[in-house]
Amino acid sequence: MTKPQHLTLKTLGIAAVLAQGLALPTDALAGCRLLTADRVFDGETLLSNAGVLIHGGKIARVDSQDALAGSCGNKIAMGDATIVPGLIESHAHITFQNVRKDQVLAHGITTVQDTGGPLQPPEGGAGQLRLLSVGPILQAAGGYPLNIFSGGGAGGYDQIGLTLGSEAEARTAVQHLVDGGATAIKIALEPGGETGAPWMQPHGSNPVPPTPWDILPQAVATAIADEAHHPQNGRPVRRVIAHVGENIGFERALVAGVDEFAHIPCAPLDAALINQAANTAGLTFVSTVDTLASCTDSGTHLGIHSNIMQLAAKIVDCEAATPGQCAQILYGSEIGHDNVPWGVNGEEMAMLLHLTSGESIDFGDVLNVFKAITSKAGKHLGIDKLGTLSKGAPADVVAVRGNAFARFKLLEYPDLVISGGRLVVNKFK
To answer: What is the CATH number of domain 14-84+395-426?
Structure first.
């Protein structure tokens, strides 16, 4: 397998090209803010000696520092620093785990997809954490997640799970979730039994129930996806996210036609299923490799690591044959778990880089990791220009001293955070 040629890490300092912005009036904008740094990543390209002009809560322009000179009197000159779009967490449990939203925001995550918990409409985005809720996870009676986190029961729209018994109940639940503000629908297809998986550990005083656990029948899972994809009475279309950890749930999710896998499954997957998934246009996987690092296969870590490596390789092959018609992998760290940071996770970024880059790592691979936590994640969430610094995008910006492209860890402790044009953290004073 060969990959297209990219710039290497060694040439990072001279690899950037300058973006071309639209001309602005010579008079400085009122109520603006200009950020300049040695490195600016706009969601697609790394620029050198560039600046970001913010006005009215939006990105107004990205250009060279010389071109932006005089455009705004309110300037933060950062020097040897890296500016990136606000970072996006594609798998979190902020509400269910009572994680402080202001702390998540202060640590560089400006948008989260809250994948399981009380139903609530979208919130934040202008000085506060942008939170997109999917509401409770739709599940089989007696199954995951209520059997682990709430001791069973019927659940409800204010809990982590909601049980379904029929296709009709499934369609009604999807309608209720969408009407209540859910930005996606999540289903659980988890029979349990994966060694080392977080859901196989005791939670509180509740012992882990014997496996296999009941999961939604194929007909019910398919009805959920159909209702979300073909809504009635003017409801918007919604993506369907599946929690799966092994082959049975994985295949059932593929047959149902889900749009997203909340994790890279941690038990070894059949090669044929991996190939089918990689060649499914628009299908998205969220990494969460660090969260599931304890998953093992007969005493090894070959399960989840092997799955993501095989998946990434098959996606590369698919893109070579049919560009734009293949699956993708996005960054996700599952904020809410105690074993990962409640903000940017540099280790997750590093794992994503090393496990998806094939036999060698080049600068294009590094860019792909940054896209997976910015522009690609924003596009997947369906918010116009989210995760970019393009003109008209939400002015969500993060900056750190030093070169974040050479050291992901820097992003865990940002020196500047802006949400919707509002300054949240500024250590460049």
So the answer is: 2.30.40.10
DSSP string, 278-296: HTSTT-EEE--TTTTTT--
Question: How far apart are the C-alpha atoms of 215 and 201, rounded to whole Å?
Answer: 19
Confidence of residue 300 (pLDDT cuts 50, 70, 90): low
**pTM exceeds 0.90 for this model:** yes
| Reported CATH class of domain 87-381 | alpha beta
Query: Nearest 5°: phi and psi at 265?
Result: -55, 145
Q: What secondary structure does DSSP assign to 108-151, as a single string? A: TEEEEEE-SSS----B--SSS-EEEE--SEEEETT-TTHHHHS-
C-alpha angle 371-83-49 in degrees, rounded to nearest 5:
110
Closest listed residue to residue 228, CA positions, set 252, 256, 255, 248: 256
Confidence at 297, pLDDT banded by 50, 70, 90:
low
Domain with CATH 3.20.20.140 in the chain: 87-381
Instruction: Tell which residue, 277, 298, 269, 178, has the closest CA to residue 228.
Output: 178
Q: Is residue 70 a contact partner of residue 53, using CB atoms and an 8 Å limit?
A: no
